[in-house]
Amino acid sequence: MQVQINDASLELVQGDITRQDVDAIVNAANSSLLGGGGVDGAIHRAAGRELLAECRTLGGCETGNAKITRGYQLQARHIIHAVGPVYADGKHGESVLLASAYRACLELASQHACASIAFPAISTGVYGYPMEAAARIAFRIILDYLAEHPEIKLVRYVLYDARAFQTHVQILEELLTQ
């Protein structure tokens, strides 16, 4: 699925984020930035051990924020490490922190001349954020940012499986018809 926002595109694809040929990919990282499971572990493995060495110099990252590194062995020039919230019950600022993480990624992409960026579904794995609610937050931030920042030409949202892909397509279609 692809949507035009001014001169930019928002694409939804099913696939492997480590194989995306974009300027930056987003890592759904933990606050240590030193690797973990899921997307985080896959990105660290694919990028190579130099990534871990650079991440050790960053001093971690607060929830709702992001930091940028080189892409090393990935096709992407950069990796933007975003720390999303662990979902408790939706009453502990999770939505604000998730929105902040997406915004921080886009701001870093702009600052580092990344015209294309690929996102995973931040916080929807082991962090337990309900996928539909997370998708609404992500797409609102992305659509608003693209409307105001012409330097970003492509945001690709990469979903690992068919269920996640279909859920995100449905949420994006709902938002676009409101």
Explain briefly what this protein structure is:
By secondary structure, the chain is an alpha/beta fold. Helices cover 39% and strands 20% of the residues. It has a 7-stranded mixed β-sheet, sandwiched between helices.
**CATH class assignment:** Alpha Beta
Approximately what portion of the residues adopt beta-strand conformation?
15-25%
Q: What characterizes the major β-sheet?
A: 7 strands, mixed
- The CATH architecture comes to 3-Layer(aba) Sandwich
Number of helices: 5
End-to-end Cα distance, whole Å, is 18 Å
Task: Give the tally of structural domains.
Answer: 1
Strand order of the largest sheet: 1-2-7-6-3-5-4
- Overall spatial form: globular
Low-confidence stretches: none
Q: How many strand units? A: 7
What name does CATH use for the topology? Leucine Aminopeptidase, subunit E, domain 1
Q: Element order, helices and strands?
A: EEEHHEEHEHEH
Helix content: 25-40%
Structural class: alpha/beta
- Give me the Rg, rounded: 15 Å
Mean pLDDT: 97
CATH superfamily (homologous) name: Leucine Aminopeptidase, subunit E, domain 1
What are the salient characteristics of this protein?
alpha/beta; 178 residues; Leucine Aminopeptidase, subunit E, domain 1; 5 helices; 7 strands; single chain; seven-stranded mixed beta sheet; 39% helix
What does this structure look like?
There is one protein chain. The protein has 178 residues and is of the alpha/beta class. The chain has a single domain, classed as Leucine Aminopeptidase, subunit E, domain 1 (3-Layer(aba) Sandwich), CATH 3.40.220.10. 39% of the residues lie in helices and 20% in strands. The protein has 5 helices and 7 strands. A 7-stranded mixed β-sheet has the order 1-2-7-6-3-5-4, sandwiched between helices. Helix 4 links the parallel strand 6 and strand 7. Helix 3 runs parallel beside helix 4 and helix 4 crosses helix 5. It is globular. The two termini are 18 Å apart. The mean pLDDT is 97.
